[in-house]
Amino acid sequence: MKVKPFLALCSVGAAILTGNGAQAQDKFIKEGIWRGVFTVNEVQVPFNFEVKGQKASEASFALLNGTRRDYFVVKQTTPDSLFIKMNTYDAALVAKIEDDGTLTGAYKSLVPGLRGNSLPFVAEHGKSYRFVEPGKDQEPAANLSGKWKLNIISKDATPGRLALLEQKGNKLTGVIMSVVGDTRELEGTVQGKNFVLSGFTGPSPIIVRGTINDDKSLSGEMGFGIYLNQKFEGVKDRKADLPDPYALTHLKEGVSTFDFSLPDLNGNPVSLSDAKYKGKVVIIEIIGTWCPNCTDQTAFLSPWFRENKNRGVEAIAVGFEQKDDLEYARYTLGKLRDKYKIEYDILFGGIADKKVASGKFPSLNRMMAFPTTIIIGRDGTVRQIHTGYTGEVTGKYFKQYVKKWNRDLDKYIAEPAPKDALAAR
Questions:
Q1: Can you tell me the distance from the alpha carbon of 97 to that of 107, in angstroms, rounded to the nearest whole number?
Q2: Pick from 44, 197, 261, 352: most CB atoms within 10 A?
Q3: Which CATH number does 146-236 carry?
Q4: pTM of the entire predicted model
């Protein structure tokens, strides 16, 4: 995942966080399915959400993307204003309830000190479609189900991507994978020779638009928030694959050890040489709370650790955040800890920048992606480095990852701890 300031948007004023709660209950948004539309660089990006509950104090708000559901807390800050924090992502939907019941507002960053453009949106109740109104579908020119190899068109060398698509009639769902992660589940449609997908799960929205060419290849463009747009060409290729994620990041030649000293959320220095980690298998995840693949990886690691922590294994999360400020990191990483019930150490690495992260881990050839996961054996040697993360929506890729993870960790944990490590503890 390419790291840039997450949307770099205007801070939300503290005024929106206050208001008369009793009055706010008098005017709440309707229960049911909604259709929202962002305007991103003059392109409309639709998204769907569902509201349950007739007042903010008991309501749930869920973003809908294919089979995926992401839930958020709704706060009614004034009688006609809503504030929906995007969980661990330091951003929010800030909206006004109009007299006709529609919502108007913007997706805004909450990162202190960042400036830039917000993403305006409007939303209407009772509209469950995403792109095309019922009854207005056009017969699709092809069925796009399958694996697609996407070549990125750029003057700079850019790794390709894979698209795993499933089409039923006009409805299109799928995920796009890269060497550093995936887009999470996308939802869209095929209309004649045109196709489009969108996704919004809390981080900045994604839009994928394209054309089915006469030779059944694809041409299109992907947009990630307001910064990154990539044109691509695609061909269906069931044998296509991405580079081995276990071979992209490695120790520098001649280097055999890995260590660091970074502060925990209380400012206390933590190092792999601490007695706590001696003779244990140690899993290190290098993450950021702004990174959706990182939170997906944390959602996998945290319950795994709770089930296995008594087997001689430790874990450490090193967060690189949108401000180089420990107090801010204590807030963002603390939110991550609470949401995913993390029971392992969380450290602060610095500003979210791959060059900065590379400097904090000089034993590595480079920091290519957030997340990166490093596994240290009981003897203190690096056993495995995995770049990126592919979530459940990737199907067999996720299943292969989990199978290898459990097999490898079982093997590393079964190894005896060195006698000097046990003595040190």
A1: 15
A2: 197
A3: 2.40.128.20
A4: 0.90
